[in-house]
Specification:
It is a single chain. The protein has one domain: NAD(P)-binding Rossmann-like Domain (Rossmann fold), CATH 3.40.50. It contains eight helices and seven strands; from the N terminus they run E-H-E-H-E-H-E-H-E-H-E-H-H-H-E. Strands 3-2-1-4-5-6-7 form a seven-stranded parallel beta sheet, with helices on both faces. Helix 1 links the parallel strand 1 and strand 2. The longest helix is centred in the middle third of the chain and has 22 residues. It is globular. The structure holds nicotinamide-adenine-dinucleotide.
Length: about 260
């Protein structure tokens, strides 16, 4: 179980896109910090094992898994109703589900691939917001996973990049809409992180070492390094931070 300097005892946390990679690391960190956590996303072969492990290592806090596809509005609506029922409310929402799309130039992307990327990454995140916000009260926190592809253009993943720019727009708008209610909304923008998504995105066309070499810190991030930033943003220590994008990229966008 990940060690954490943060305490979220009895916090009620929903993580959408928690079955692997960054979301899974965030789930491990929130459970280690004492939160009751609903993990959601598309089930993986090891999801039952993951939930059992998290539950067995928790300190009495509860862990649930609820499958939901964010491209299906009814599934998102049902997820929120079920998550709020078991958690008894909602304090922290992490909207992290995302897909990579196909690697290649804009004009060679199939229209169906464009539609799928926008449906999962942008519409899916908006659907999460739509069904989460009515349950949130003063002090609640929303976290959205964007990407450095949302703060600068990345060629050959142009539509993915556009969806991540869109997530930053949603983050800023939601932050302003919810600030009067004392609800904070922030995004993280990771650079390359060692997950299945990154491997699928580059599809063997760029060596991982070349990506690592392009980062000023000369390495690819581990999912836990993004999770620790997410926990800070969710904590009271970030209580005056809203509408912000925390870039976590080893210096990549400074180069
Ligand atoms: P991952 O493939 O390991 O995890 C993706 C998660 O999203 C999984 O839990 C999966 O079930 C879920 N998901 C995918 N499609 C879904 C759908 N239709 N409905 C519900 N859940 C769905 O990849 P990751 O790298 O951990 O990605 C997590 C987030 O981080 C994504 O939004 C991704 O764009 C973003 N990100 C990743 C990197 C990177 O280099 N890995 C960099 C920047 C941003």
């Amino acid at each position: 179980m990940a060690q954490t300097q943060f305490q979220f005892r009895d916090s009620r946390v929903l993580i959408v896109g928690a079955t692997s990679g960054i979301g899974r690391a965030a789930a491990e960190a929130f459970v280690a910090a004492g939160a009751n956590v609903v993990l959601s996303g598309l089930p993986q072969p090891d999801t039952d094992t993951l939930v059992a492990e998290l539950q067995s290592r928790s300190q009495g806090n509860q862990v649930w898994f609820m499958a939901a596809d964010v491209s299906d509005e009814l599934q998102v609506a049902r997820l929120l109703a079920d998550a709020v029922r078991v958690l008894g409310g909602l304090d922290i929402c992490l909207n992290n589900a995302g897909i990579e799309g196909r690697f290649g130039p804009l004009h060679q992307l199939a229209t169906a691939d464009f539609d799928r990327l926008v449906t999962v990454n942008l519409r899916g995140l908006w659907l999460c917001l739509k069904y989460e916000i009515p349950h949130l009260r003063r002090g609640a926190v929303i976290l959205n996973t964007a990407s450095t592809a949302g703060v600068q253009a990345i060629p050959m993943v142009g539509v993915y990049s556009a969806t991540k720019h869109g997530i930053l727009g949603l983050t800023r708008a939601a932050a302003l809409e919810l600030a009067p209610q004392g609800i904070r909304v922030n995004a993280v923008a990771p650079g390359p992180v060692e997950t299945g998504l990154l491997a699928r995105m580059i599809d063997g066309q760029i060596p991982l070492q070349a990506i690592a070499d392009s980062v000023p810190l000369r390495r690819i991030a581990q999912p836990a390094e993004i999770a620790s930033a997410l926990l800070w943003l969710a904590s009271d220590g970030a209580g005056y931070v809203t509408g912000e994008t925390l870039v976590i990229d080893g210096g990549l966008t400074q180069a």
